[in-house]
Amino acid sequence: MPGFTIARLRTVFSAAACLAVLTAVEVLAGGFTASEQIFPDTTRAWLSVPDPDAFRERFDGSPYGQLVNDPAMKAFVDSVREQVSKNGRQRLEKLGLTLEDLEKVPGGEVAVGAIEAEPGRLATLLLVDTTGHETEAKELVERIKTRLLERKASVVTIADAPPQLTVYALPDDPQDDRVPTNRRVAFALAPQALLVGDDAQQVGQALGVLAQGRKDSLGSLASFSGVMQPCRSGLPQAAPPLRWFVDPLGFAKAFQASRPAREKKKGPDYVTILARQGFDAIKAAGGLVAFAEGGHGIRHHTMIHAPALPGREPLAPDCYDGAARMLRLLPIETPRPHGWAPQKLSGWSTLRWDLKAAFVAAEPLVDDIVGDKGVYDDVIASLKEDPDGPQIDVEKDLVDCLTGRLTVVTDHVDPRDTDAERLVIALEVADEARVAETIAKVMNADSDMRKIEINGHAAWELIDRSAELPQLDVDIPGAVVTPGATDPVHDPDDEAHRRRARLRDNRDEKLLPHSSVSVALGHLFIASHRDALERVLVQAVDGGSLGTAADFSAAVAEVERLVPGGKASVTFLREDESLQPTYELLRQGAMPKSKSVFGQLLNGALGDGKRGSVREQRIDGSLLPEFDVIRRYLGTAALALEPRPDGWYIAGMSLPRPAADAGVARKPGTAVDR
User: Fold this and answer.
1) At what angle do helices 575-588 and 597-606 cross, to 10 degrees?
2) C-alpha distances in angstroms, 558 versus 144, 250, 551, 552, 637?
3) Predicted structure pTM score
4) Confidence of residue 470 (pLDDT cuts 50, 70, 90)
5) Cα(465)–Cα(488) distance, rounded to whole angstroms?
6) What is the dihedral angle through the alpha carbons of 253, 255, 257, 261, rounded to the nearest 10 degrees?
7) 375-385 and 355-370 are packed helices; what angle lies between their axes, rounded to 10 degrees?
8) DSSP per-residue codes, 136-160
């Protein structure tokens, strides 16, 4: 149980994110048909704002828009906008554009997409409805030409190309071998539309189908309809949304092929493995986002389109192949908090998973990741047969004794520093006595765990061995002391030094470095800290659970209205309590040092990938005001997930903070009954 470790993650951000700062109907008013009828069916990712002006107006009217426009936030917002603009220019520079260029041109829909122009090669296409802004569009085209010429680009003549299409060839960049050769920028100015892209063929094809669309369009895909129809039906027609769509594995594979790393990375190719293990059953994900709609600060509807394989029964355990059978989620009979869930917390989430199916389906995935068939079975067998191990049958003694319902509660303590987050994961058990016996065997076999007692319940906590790590090793054999150094320089062949380095690395890499474990109240509890586990176990005696809080009841009632079907997951957040720890770390410039789960994931995603390294914070948080200045803009949020025959439907919203409560700050350990 103590071995909760995190692998280094890498997150790739698409240029499509630039569109979000520009702050649907089947056929849009303006210069062309809806963009989903223009983009081809090889589009792997797509983002569209059908009415940018209305979308921006709604955002400004929402609590989040009011927060951004608060005078106290001006210095910070201006700094972030400058940084986003700089990053956006870097991403759009290859097209001769800047984010500022796109602010005054749209008269209707703005859409951007990543198209797999040919296997393994992604092309970018930007489409702007310029109705009523034709003059600005012409001026923009001239600026694009000037910039490209300044970059020593040359005009390319293409036979039989339409007269509106202009193509430039960009010089190769010898300083960066990741930048592809033979780069192109193509743009076309139609009477009411501007098209810009890095593939002349895609720009030309889009230009030719502006009025009537194309048969082999993005909108013709069953996966596109499977995503958009349920989301569209959940949002009022009058709401101006942001729309998005992605073919997850299709995009990942094409992006991976089109952006080879400078150096070949060691380790498994997760994109290939997921496809091989049946996760290509997820055909698409997408949805709609709207602000200030129906009394909600934000409203979002998402569909993950994953129909059962041909000839398979939808929602059945074998509706997918391979490890993808791990994806089976089951409706929760009563998706409400248990009595042990404290009323005074920042977040609560519950989910019901088919754990038995997941346990079996995990075998080929683990073996594939490790690269050795039989590893999974060997590990399970060793836990049962190794005389030095816990000697448990994982399937019978643990998995079969769990109901599959998982609950996570989060909160924070003062001071709001890098170790302030508190997390408790609870697995509901059907046979508490057997699970307690199993966990006792596991814990007693682990020398890093120490048995304790909490409120009459047996528990175990991870021993903090950080004090055992030497800070100054002067007399260690194999060490060469450098005058003035705080640590000696070690002989790399010194085994003692290597053991200490591994211990330090393992400590730093643990996702829950202070974890505590207990079986009580019908659950297997795994807590990030002992005090978090103590709070849960005492809560059952003190009473006043989350389910009795007025703000929780109001938020969940709204989610029930948005997702009336059987829910496999429900999540509730108090926005202020969830945001404040991150906010304070940003102000201190300490976010990269955060020991929270989110902070560690972020550091792994944005860091340099080297063990133990801490990334540099990219946002100047010193410009942020005191948190109480912005608290009044933050309310509650909730979402729910419903398993459907063709995938999973997710809907959520936020409720603004009542005016009477705008200035109330919750002290740690107290709840605001909104």
Assistant:
1) 50
2) 47, 35, 11, 10, 10
3) 0.84
4) very low
5) 21
6) -120
7) 120
8) HHHHHHHHHHHHHHHTT-EE---TT
Alpha-carbon distances of 613 from 473, 505, 616, rounded to whole Å? 22, 10, 10
What residues contact residue 47 under an 8 Å CB cut-off, 6+ apart?
16, 19, 20, 111, 112, 113, 242, 243, 244
How many H-runs (helices) and E-runs (strands) does the chain carry?
17, 22
Report whether 367 contacts 571 (CB < 8 A): no
Radius of gyration over every alpha carbon of the chain, rounded to an integer in angstroms: 27
- Whole-angstrom CA distances from 62 to 281, 296, 557 are 37, 8, 21
- The full DSSP string for 580-615 is HHHHHHHHHT-GGG--SHHHHHHHHHHS-S-TT--P
Residue 66 amino acid letter = Q
First to last CA, the chain: 37
Closest by CA to 125, choosing from 192, 189, 200, 210, is: 200
CB neighbours of 261 closer than 8 A, spacing ≥ 6? 178
Q: With beta carbons less than 8 A apart as the criterion, state whether 321 and 243 touch.
A: no
C-alpha neighbours within 13 Å on the C-beta side of residue 540: 14
Contact yes or no for 226/283 (Cβ under 8 A) = yes
Condensed to tens digits (0 to 9), the pLDDT of residues 585-610 reads: 888 887 777 666 555 555 554 454 45
Tens of pLDDT, residue by residue over 410-444, are 999 988 877 888 999 999 999 999 999 999 999 99
What angle is formed at CA 672 by the lines to CA 671 and CA 674, rounded to 5 degrees?
140
Q: SS3 for 78?
A: helix
Taken as a whole, the chain contains a residue count of 674
Is the distance from CB of 130 to CB of 191 less than 8 angstroms?
no
Provide the 3-class DSSP secondary structure of residue 198: coil
| Backbone phi, psi, residue 362, to 5° | -70, -20
Rounded Cα–Cα distance for residues 306 and 641 (Å): 14
Residue 338 phi, psi dihedral angles, 5° rounding:
-75, 165
Residue with tokens 């603004």: 656
107-111, 422-426, 478-482, range with the lowest pLDDT? 478-482
Bridge partners, 189 (sequence order): 194
Cα(112)–Cα(163) distance, integer angstroms: 23
CA distance 225 to 230: 8
Find where tokens 């089109």 sit: 258
In angstroms, rounded to a whole number, what is the distance separating the alpha carbons of residues 289 and 509?
A: 36
338: which residues sit within 8 A by CB, 6+ positions away?
Answer: 407, 426, 521, 522, 523, 545
8 Å CB contact between 612 and 505: yes
Rounded to whole angstroms, the Cα distance separating 572 from 551 reads: 10
Of 142, 162, 163, 145, nearest in space to 154 by CA:
145
Specify the DSSP class assigned to residue 578.
H
CA distances (Å), 546 to each of 333, 339, 410, 561, in order? Answer: 18, 8, 12, 20
Contacts (Cβ under 8 Å, ≥6 apart) of 618: 83, 606
- What the block records as the tokens of 237 is 């027609």
Sign of torsion over alpha carbons 339, 340, 343, 349: negative
Give kind and range of the element (H or E) at residue 427: strand 421-429
Residue 623 structure tokens: 């410009």
